[in-house]
Design brief:
about 130 residues, mainly beta, Archaeosine Trna-guanine Transglycosylase, Chain: A, domain 4, 5-stranded mixed β-sheet, 3-stranded antiparallel β-sheet, 10 strands, about 50% strand, elongated
């Protein structure tokens, strides 16, 4: 079973716990890209962008599959509150400008196409209120 652990703020945590929110969205950046997507080139799948061979082949992006998300909130001390929720689906959404081109962002000196991963959430399978 593949579980991805993410920190989350209290309000979205509470909204997921109460059923008001059924998705979790995260920006994909050079720092976290390996957690969220793999790359498909010529029918080969690569976990890291730097592993893609040089060439003019089209690079496709695929959301990594996770069975569950462990969403952790609270201060970084003691045992923090968390919930574990099923992932029904995950998809990548790129942002485009008015001309239909990728919106390019820069972080830590590296340019990348601005995109989000959206996890569609299912049932909550575990909760923990935390301890000090």
């Amino acid at each position: 079973m593949k579980v991805l652990t993410l920190s989350i703020k209290q309000k979205p945590f509470d909204d997921i716990l109460s059923g008001k929110k059924d998705f979790e969205r995260r920006e994909i950046t050079p720092r976290n890209v390996c957690d969220y997507v793999s790359f498909i080139v010529d029918d080969n799948e690569y976990d890291k962008e730097e592993d893609i061979p040089e060439g003019d082949s089209e690079v496709m992006v695929k959301a990594k599959e996770y069975d569950r998300l462990k969403l952790v909130t609270g201060e970084y001390k003691g045992k923090r509150p968390y919930l574990v929720v099923e992932v029904k689906d995950a998809r990548v959404e790129f942002l485009y400008d008015e001309n239909g081109d990728f919106i390019i962002a820069e972080k830590d000196g590296k340019e990348y196409a601005l995109a989000y991963i959206i996890f569609e959430l299912g049932n909550i399978v575990e909760t923990f209120k935390g301890e000090k």
